[in-house]
């Protein structure tokens, strides 16, 4: 029998169809799902359209943790809709204030060896306890909740061997920043990052979760750690020891690629603006003045992280020119901070304590001032994501953030006293009174506010696809570029017509108006188009605007899936040089589009304006061809019905 790595073991146990050959399409059974309120409203609207009475997974949870700033009725209405529709269909609900979905799911629901599909790109956080946890668009999650399998490309498996142990106040955050430095934001596409080696045993579950969480920035399908004695201790402290299962790769298991990191050689790192892979050592960047520090997010908001921050801040006062915010990851974390007295140490330092939610990480408040330097323990520092386009956002560890907040300038923790790692509590403060169980509710009536609008559904692909080149974008266009997700727009996540006015606004504020005037057209882009969030609004809004296709050098996995699900052509230049030959305003035509797709992978596009042709690839399985030809997943379902 072949010696298997952990990733292949879990996939094999959940395989519904396909062969586990890297690059081929497989389908796997999904045990658990999670949604959050930024993407969840649309996911549940799509789930309702499928006509399923009760969710078919072992456990599905709806979290409300993103749109918690209630400056109008819209967010509260969406929360009421999510709560009612979830409970009606057998889905657990984590109410506002209970915490960030990934932190809470790790604490209360995650099970080693299970598959987890979430409508949030940071769902791989669950890999910290040995789950195969994958982020996807809301429609894919809706399909899973209705009992359908997840179709994906069988990934390659990359072994990251961790040797030794961390020193010099280097942290788990620095491990993943080092991986990003080595592999870049495109280096994980089509891959699972599997951690192994003696260094794994030195890392607690929250530390592992930090690494798997931010593995999303690699473009990876997911990241995973073995489930071992550390995992067992964490689950036991959560009162969930029965959920534990020991899981690891077989001795001598094979991998597609291998990377080795000497933990003892790591020094505190920082990701510079505006990309998580623009990594340097803190010492290299130097003592730059810091205007704002934000500690929290699903990456670094655990009890252990907060206790280390509290120990650094104890008896100190933050710099008078620096603002410090703290966002605990869950009600459990906040309760334990309060009971231990650590919360008082944080407050006494001058920090501003925010609610247990995503908050500043997604631009939901705390936007820095013009031209500010903001240090954040978050996972993304994309341009304008903070809400302030002129700000320079750096990603750092909680230790770097806390020391810098005190000094008012970027401070290297390697030069500071060693920060003691807090011991794992024998028992976490378990209180699930903000988690609603569907079995406790009967005769639920779904509540729909006036802000909830129908979502667009495409029509079957035409024989001739034509339109204007509406915009030519650079490399690494993120979903934050395509569909901004700030405090002003998040309340409209269930209102695609309203959101459409802001599509690609950070790149070109005139784009939406021009797209509407032209009746749609094409988007042309560089490599890694659509990196970042799983939000399918970045596909639904272009669909509403009449976008026929996106032609790019390459795509991020989740966004490509979302485009296909919406019936938008994700075309890849055969020759990347052809991208440079297209100008905004050029009229593009695909003759015999259906025939070309049915006959192979090569799609010929004619540039009527320039008088030339160029070739693209559209690599689709027979199943995906059927979806594209029908105009998307829901259009296909309607045609079959």
Please sum up the structure shown.
It is built from 21 helices and 27 strands. It has 641 residues and is α/β, with parallel strands linked by helices.
Distance linking N and C termini: 44 Å
Determine the fraction of residues in helical runs and give it as a percent range: 25-40%
> What global shape is seen?
globular
Strand content: 15-25%
Decide which structural class fits the backbone. alpha/beta
Q: So how many helices? A: 21
Average pLDDT confidence is 95
Biggest sheet strand order reads: 21-22-23-24-27-26-25
Radius of gyration: 24 Å
Question: How does the major sheet shape up?
Answer: 7 strands, mixed, barrel
Compute the number of strand runs: 27
Low-confidence stretches: none
Description:
The chain is of the alpha/beta class and 641 residues long. The chain is built from 21 helices and 27 strands. The strands form 6 sheets. The chain has a 7-stranded mixed beta barrel with strand order 21-22-23-24-27-26-25, surrounded by 4 helices. β15, α10 and β16 form a beta-alpha-beta unit. The longest helix is centred in the first third of the chain and has 16 residues, at 73-88.
